Structure formats: C-alpha cells, structure tokens
C-alpha cells in the first residue's frame, strides 16, 4: 500500500490575519490538483481566518503547538478543545524551536501528542538531531529516543493520525539541506524504530515521515523522489504561494 505524501507549511511566527487571507487566496488555485495532502500550520491568531479561507478547498489547517492539559491555570497556552472548536485538523508537536527556546522535553512532547490525539486532532510530530549531535555521530540514538518517548502509551490504532517530521536542527532556516540520501537514511532509522514499537507492516503502510529543513522549490523534487520520504514540513518556502505550490507539485 503506497503512503500518501503530505506537504505541510509551518508558518512559524509569520503573517497577520490580512496576510493569511491573501496568502490562502493565492494558494488555493495553485494547489487544487495536488495528489498529496496539503496542510498549512499557522499562528493561533490566524487559525480562524485560515479555516474560513480554506473552506471548500483541499487545504487543511493546523496549529503550531497545543497544551497537554484540558484546561486550567496555564497562562498563554491553548488547549486541544480550543483548536477543535475552530475547525483545526492538525497540530505540530515537538518542533525543535519549541524544544530549544521553550523548554520542550521528550516528556512534554508525549503529553501534548496524547492530548491532541484524545481530542481528535492529527499530529505532526517533529524529531531531529542538532549539529553537535550529528557531529558526535549520535543521530540514530537521538531520533530513536525522541520517537520512542513521543509514542509512549500511544495505541496502534492512532498511527494513521500521526505524521512524523524528521527535521535535522542544523538544516532549519540555514539554507543547508540534508542530502536526499542522508535524509532518507535517517528516516529509515525512524521507520525501523516504528516497526519495532508497533509492527513492520504498520511502519511500512501507515507511518508517514516527512523531511523538513530548508526544503524548497529547488530541492523538493530530489527529496520527494527518495523512497522513505513521504513529504515535507516547509518553513520559509511556505510563506510564498508560488514556492509552496511548487513543493506541493512534487507529490509523488
Ligand atoms: P525552513 O524550511 O525555514 O528551514 O524551516 C523548516 C522547519 O522548521 C519547518 O518546521
């Protein structure tokens, strides 16, 4: 069974509501014939506008984070129910920027994944090694540890609701992309880990793994041609409709 590719934009802290409406309006005609799933993950303040603007199109909307608690004294946080109420379908969890700047740990990532799934959100789970870890030769250990921790307590029947994004931290926003072969090799390690955690067929048929890190209109074709790479999580290049649409156009 072929895995359906999924291309997602991670807008990070970019775009006002007005800019969201304009970008989505430009994007809709450009990606309407995509063979892959198309997702845009926007700041919280843009979500309602993005859901409204994408109605009737093939573009799905995601948030960039979610809290693990149902509700309570967590100033500045947003719950899964709040996202669901807006019509949001996806949420990114464990992005390296959250891990680096906001104290995200393997344990909080796992708690957020569980909260999102329990409320019917689909998760884009990010894993990836830093430059120091890559240079120390511990990439496999790092992505395996992050994957195992994130899936702790997650049932097999949730696998269709989680996409993994392999994002080497040193490739994010730097213009440095992992070579297609390197990205493919590390994604294979993650898939093998999923085979061990669940079952080989589950990992082969139901686990979609994206590459992320300076993926753009120029390098997407080569990356998408690799057998293990099921899509991309796109930062900078998702902020321009033509660039993002070109990446979407390389759906397998
Ligand atoms: P860039 O595509 O800007 O490198 O960002 C990648 C990323 O972090 C997506 O989540």
Features:
252 residues, alpha/beta, TIM Barrel, eight-stranded parallel β-barrel, 11 helices, 8 strands, globular, binds 1,3-dihydroxyacetonephosphate
**Tell me, what is the CATH class?**
Alpha Beta
The ordered H/E elements are: EHEHEHEHHEHHEHHEHEH
**Uncertain regions: pLDDT < 50 for 5+ in a row?**
none
Mean of pLDDT: 97
How is the largest sheet built, in terms of strand order? 1-2-3-4-5-6-7-8
Count of discrete domains: 1
> Approximately how much beta-strand content do the residues carry?
15-25%
Distance between the termini: 14 Å
CATH fold-level name: TIM Barrel
Shape assignment:
globular
Fourth-tier CATH superfamily name = Aldolase class I
The helix content, as a percent range, equals 40-55%
Rg (C-alpha, Å) = 17 Å
How many H/I helical runs?
A: 11
Classify the secondary structure makeup into a structural class: alpha/beta
What binds here, in terms of ligands, is: 1,3-dihydroxyacetonephosphate
Quick synopsis:
The protein contains eleven helices and eight strands.
Characterise the protein shown here.
- By secondary structure, the chain is of the alpha/beta class.
- It has one domain: Aldolase class I (TIM Barrel, Alpha-Beta Barrel).
- Helix content is 41%, strand content 15%.
- It has an 8-stranded parallel barrel, surrounded by 6 helices.
- Strand 3, helix 3 and strand 4 form a beta-alpha-beta unit.
- Helix 7 crosses helix 8.
- It is globular.
- The protein starts with 5 loop residues before the first strand and ends with a helix.
- The model has no long low-confidence stretch (mean pLDDT 97).
- The structure holds 1,3-dihydroxyacetonephosphate.
- 1,3-dihydroxyacetonephosphate (13P) binds next to strand 8.
């Amino acid at each position: 069974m072929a895995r359906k590719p999924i291309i997602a934009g991670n807008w990070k802290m970019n775009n006002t509501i007005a800019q969201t409406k304009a970008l989505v309006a430009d994007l809709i005609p450009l990606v309407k014939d995509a063979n892959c799933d198309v997702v845009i993950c926007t700041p919280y303040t843009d979500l309602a506008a993005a859901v409204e603007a994408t109605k009737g199109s093939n573009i799905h909307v995601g948030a960039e984070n979610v809290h693990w608690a149902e509700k309570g004294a967590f100033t500045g946080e947003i719950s899964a129910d709040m996202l669901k109420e807006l019509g949001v379908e996806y949420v990114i969890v464990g992005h390296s920027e959250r891990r680096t700047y906001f104290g995200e740990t393997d344990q909080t990532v796992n708690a957020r994944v569980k909260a999102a799934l329990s409320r019917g959100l689909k998760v884009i789970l990010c894993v990836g090694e830093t430059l120091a870890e890559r240079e120390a030769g511990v990439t496999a250990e790092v992505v395996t540890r992050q994957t195992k921790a994130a899936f702790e307590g997650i049932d097999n029947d949730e696998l269709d609701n989680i996409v993994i994004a392999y994002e080497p931290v040193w490739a994010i926003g730097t213009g440095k992309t992992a070579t297609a072969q390197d990205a493919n090799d590390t994604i294979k390690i993650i898939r093998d880990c999923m085979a061990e955690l669940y079952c080989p067929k589950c990992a082969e048929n139901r686990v979609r793994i994206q590459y992320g890190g300076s993926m753009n209109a120029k390098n997407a074709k080569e990356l998408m041609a690799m057998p293990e790479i099921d899509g991309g999580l796109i930062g900078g290049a998702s902020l321009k409709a033509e660039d993002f649409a070109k990446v979407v156009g390389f759906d397998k």
